[in-house]
Design brief:
Distance between the termini: 30 Å
CATH topology: Rossmann fold
Number of domains: 1
Largest sheet: 7 strands, mixed
Shape: globular
Helix content: 25-40%
Order of helices and strands: EHEEEHEEHEHHHH
CATH class: Alpha Beta
């Protein structure tokens, strides 16, 4: 199961905090999977095949701070262990376009991951963090306002490439395993 984190609604669609949704959309497009609203999971869900295995993609619609509620519902229903879970989300502490793959870890201050860790009762949750940069000091704005802001014009031009790389990183985690994927993608972009 692969979960992209973000906030529902048009208002947040192209904001930095929704880069997890954007990455999952890119990955699902490559598999020709379509998302459908499933109210009982508080999520948009896409199901299908990946090679010969079943795959489930989800975009929680609970708003970021309550992501764990939706993730727990889906995992409980499908009896998915945490080692078959991959969370994709934004990270303000990484440079824009940087990708970081990890097998486990703390929330790092990310409220969506904090909610998931609390609801699942474990930090052993595989994840891909996507750098959104941190321009709070130079723009003199709060973190919460920054993550809910739109990308700059220059950054917007690089989003497609970043989404393609993130989709490839997801594929690598699935096909090659974490160690190989981390060696390939856990470096600063050229």
């Amino acid at each position: 199961m692969i979960i992209g984190l973000g906030n529902p609604g048009i208002k947040y669609r192209l904001t930095r905090h929704n880069i997890g949704f954007m990455a999952i959309d890119e990955f699902s497009n490559g598999l020709n999977l379509e998302f459908k609203q499933v109210k009982s999971y508080n999520s948009m869900i896409a199901r299908g095949k990946y090679n010969d295995d079943r795959i489930l993609l989800a975009k929680p619609q609970t708003y970021m701070n309550l992501s764990g509620i939706a993730v727990k519902k889906i995992m409980s229903y499908y009896k998915i262990p945490t080692n078959h879970l991959l969370i994709v989300y934004d990270d303000i502490n990484l440079e824009f376009e940087q990708i970081r793959i990890r097998k486990k870890g703390s929330s790092g201050g990310h409220n969506g991951m904090k909610s998931i860790i609390e609801c699942l009762g474990s930090e052993n949750i595989p994840r891909i963090r996507i750098g959104i940069g941190n321009r709070c000091t130079e723009r003199n704005i709060q973190y919460s306002d920054y993550v809910l802001s739109k990308f700059t014009e220059r950054e917007h031009k690089d989003i497609k490439n970043l989404m393609t790389r993130t989709s490839s990183a997801i594929n690598s985690v699935i096909m090659d395993g974490f160690d190989k994927a981390m060696r390939e993608y856990n470096r600063k972009p050229d």
